[in-house]
Amino acid sequence: MQTRSEKTKRLVGLALFTAIVVVLQLLGSFIHLGTFSVSLVLVPIVVGAALYGVGGGFWLGLVFGLTVLISGDAGLFLGFNPLGTIVTVLAKGALAGLCAGLAYKAFAWRGGMLPAAAAAITAPIVNTGLFTLGCYLFFIPLVQELAGGSMGVTRFIFLYLIGGNFFFELAVNLLLCPVIVRLINIGSGRKAKAVLSE
């Protein structure tokens, strides 16, 4: 059972990561690759999920989704199908954080780079995968209109709606894995150590 001091430390840590997620998402809304902005928030979501568990990852992912909705970054879809947009955006964010936490936890026994890499890979896959599923469930008429008959719906989704965003997010997460590991070590009170040699 956590002491009052540990609970306070956890709340302060989650509050700090919540602020980081909001700020990075708002800044990221100005950086576009293709149709949508790049999600810079997946790194703090991964670190938060590792430090504060599956519930912490879920919370930070949910904050990411709420910020996307409030910032107007999902405006195109929101105007077409508000309920579908809210469900898709909140689910993809929250489940990306939750699954990153589960992936980290599954490999935490191994130590080193593997748990962070598993979480860093999982977050963008879940985020993009659920966005793609949302497109098929709620937005096919809009996607067909956007494609303008120039190509099939699936090709348009993968080339223009997802496009380079997924690969950029995945690459950023993987490139920052050593930093993620150091932040996790520092945040969990372990002595930060060089993990590149592991």
Task: Provide an overview of this structure.
A two-stranded antiparallel ribbon has the order 1-2. Helices cover 78% and strands 2% of the residues. By secondary structure, it is an all-alpha fold. The protein has helices at 4-28, 42-71, 75-80, 82-107, 114-138, 140-147, 153-175, 177-187; strands at 32-33, 36-37. It has one domain (4-187): Arp2/3 complex 21 kDa subunit ARPC3 (Orthogonal Bundle), CATH 1.10.1760.20.
CATH architecture: Orthogonal Bundle
Low-pLDDT windows of residues: 191-198
CATH topology: Arp2/3 complex 21 kDa subunit ARPC3
Sequence of secondary-structure elements: HEEHHHHHHH
Notable traits:
198 residues; mainly alpha; Arp2/3 complex 21 kDa subunit ARPC3; two-stranded antiparallel ribbon; 8 helices; 2 strands; elongated
Compact summary:
The protein is built from eight helices and two strands; from the N terminus they run H-E-E-H-H-H-H-H-H-H. By secondary structure, the protein is mainly alpha-helical. The protein has a single domain, classed as Orthogonal Bundle (Arp2/3 complex 21 kDa subunit ARPC3), CATH 1.10.1760.20.
Explain the layout of strands and helices.
Blueprint: H1 4-28, E1 32-33, E2 36-37, H2 42-71, H3 75-80, H4 82-107, H5 114-138, H6 140-147, H7 153-175, H8 177-187
Antiparallel strand pairs: 1-2
